[in-house]
Amino acid sequence: MSAKLEAIWLKRKRRGPMDPAATVRTLARSGLAGNVHQGGRRQVTLLSAEAWQEAEQELGRSLHPTLRRANLMVSGIDLEQSRGRMLAIGQVQILIRGETKPCNQMEEARTGLRRTLSVGWRGGVYGEVLTDGELCIGDPVRWVDVSRS
Question: How many domains does the chain have?
Answer without folding.
Answer: 1
